[in-house]
TrEMBL record:
One protein family per Pfam: Acetyltransf_10
Record organism: Flavobacterium chungbukense
PROSITE patterns per UniProt: GNAT
InterPro entries: Acyl_CoA_acyltransferase (IPR016181), GNAT_dom (IPR000182)
Positions of the N-acetyltransferase domain: 2-165
Protein name: GNAT family N-acetyltransferase
Lineage, highest ranks first: Bacteria, Pseudomonadati, Bacteroidota, Flavobacteriia, Flavobacteriales
Gene3D superfamilies: 3.40.630.30
Length: 165
């Protein structure tokens, strides 16, 4: 049984713990160790997460199974003032892969999006991330290719993927 509950500032350490477990596995063969460390600090520092949560830049949710915390998501409804829910972050522990949890989480995101009058889901995925195939199986399609400068000379080389609701 998967449980998805809203996360608050007091849950930042839990979000950081999952990020620090999943990122090296997800991006270890794609990014240099320096870029990985830089991005984790940029996106998951106490300050960055506090700002995102307190200013409601993203809504964070913790994902648990019957035994423990297994992941988190960060989403934004009304992205760019449109009927779009943007999935900024979705990370599940590696040992959950292949158990159907990802599909359950995406179904929950779709439900939240529809409750907020969204007509589309959007997400960015690194062009070399193996999750690309999973997103395609869920009905996401590549909408565009983007290179996003994030400082220190680093780029995020992503596909923007979308799925109509």
């Amino acid at each position: 049984m998967i449980k998805i509950t809203e996360a608050f500032v007091e849950d930042i350490a839990k979000i950081q713990e999952i990020a620090h477990i999943t990122w090296p596995i997800t991006y270890g063969e794609i990014l240099t160790a320096e870029q990985l460390h830089y991005m984790l600090d940029l996106i998951y520092s106490d300050e960055a997460l506090t700002r995102q949560i307190q200013n409601k830049e993203q809504l964070f949710y913790l994902i648990s199974d019957s035994e423990s915390l297994i992941g988190f998501i960060g989403i934004e409804h009304h992205y760019k003032n449109e009927a779009i829910t943007k999935i900024h972050k979705i990370y599940l522990l590696p040992e959950t892969q292949g158990k159907g949890y990802g599909k359950v989480v995406f179904n929950s995101i779709e439900k939240l999006a529809l409750e907020n009058n969204s007509k589309e889901l959007l997400l960015n995925v690194n062009r070399f991330n193996t999750a690309l195939n999973f997103y395609k199986k869920l009905g996401f399609e590549i909408k565009e290719t983007v290179d996003i400068e994030i400082g220190n000379g680093y780029l995020m080389e992503d596909y923007v993927m979308g799925k109509g609701l």
